[in-house]
Amino acid sequence: MINSMQPDIKTIFRLQQNTAPILALTDAKERIERLLRIDNYLKDEKHLAELYKALYKDLRKPEVEVISTEVGVIQTQIAYLKKNLSNWARDHKASTPLPLIGTRSYLRYEPKGVVLIMSPWNFPLNLSLVPLVYAIAAGNAVMLKPSEISSHTSVYIKNMIEELFDWNEVAVIQGDASVASELLELPFNHIFFTGSPRVGKIVMAKAAEHLCSVTLELGGKSPAIIDETANIPKMAKRLAWAKSINCGQTCVTPDYLILHDSIKDSFINEFESSLKEFYAPSDKGIDQSPDYCRIINDHHFQRLNSLYEDALEKGACVLTGGELDGTDRFIAPTILDNISEEMSIMQEEIFGPLLPVISYSDRSMVKKIIHNHPNPLMLYIASNDKNNIRYYMDGNPAGGTVINDYMLGYSNPNLPFGGVNNSGMGKSLGFHCFMEFSNKRSIIHRKWGSLSMIYPPYNDRVQWLVKMMYRWM
């Protein structure tokens, strides 16, 4: 692979434009070979040790979470592609209506060309390489822009990709927002962006200048409903884990809790007990746990601290947690009560371990609360009442829904992952992600016959034939 000095962005783009038609002719076997380069790299213990160090420096992420939320996710997707890509990449037969008798119709998935992937900092390896492996599987050339915020992991990704691929196939572009702006000036064939709705609007506007298709994996405020029929010990433990993993810096983490009045006290007690079990079994405090991550940088710590202070100033109270240490970028999992919509914490995605709780007594209140916000990425429902589950789902659009658990929306490659409106557009994972990076090309091949019987000059017989043809459909 190329190891000399990397060319400038425009040169790489031109190289990839020249290579894209060649990559388009590769078959499933050749593309899988490229994916296995990534898979084998991540299985190497030396490379894994380097990754552990990088993610610890960026997020203080424990090794178990590196495997379960970063490396393991990527390897699962590669294994799924190995099993399914040959079938996806072949021509797919389509039925032929009667007026087209004598033709053969089929669908071909062809690569879009040169694609841009812009990934975030919260799961910097996972959210860079998962879209990358699908872009490669679809036969595209790729420019990957990882986040400069998770700088150590971004360097790791760059070193890995430069060892495995030539720049004219896959290139990692590092830099800040100015570099991202420079990239968005180029006429890519597709852009896959993961990040905030605010930046997503910028990406979409720039893509529109080139009529470039986009996949936007955004976020928003994902509500977690827990009704009076839920198994409180189980759901409290599951939510405590979901809100704490990666220090709450996860787009699919529950953003606020809608809790039935009758189980509020018991839920809080169980939540506190679960946190102690996870992170403070020896009563040393969560801040001493080797298994609890930290906020990514000072800027985001101050942002979360401002949300916390604003809520307290406007009447919120702490039910559990509330410990913040700026010198260590530590924020304990914290539940806030007495929440109002005027608080900043209810106006933006939190992206941290703060959890506002809103109580309700009648289920009709739940929909009113959710409708105060744009459509979420995920809707969480904890209930053992089928009628309640159906009620909470109906009329509450969301990118996905998880019932009686959390964080599973990004786990099954047989299901599409993505938002709706403010929380995103387009889908990721599995065949749905393969399609995002593919042009769905329809093909009609005339094998015999023709439509000459309805050519001009028109007469009563032609008119009768046309009517009959469409009545028989």
Automatic annotation (TrEMBL):
Single GO MF descriptor: aldehyde dehydrogenase (NAD+) activity
Keyword Oxidoreductase: yes
A UniProt-annotated Pfam family: Aldedh
Biological process, per Gene Ontology: aldehyde metabolic process
GO cellular component terms listed in the entry, alphabetical order: cytoplasm
Family membership noted in the UniProt record: Belongs to the aldehyde dehydrogenase family.
Protein name: Aldehyde dehydrogenase family protein
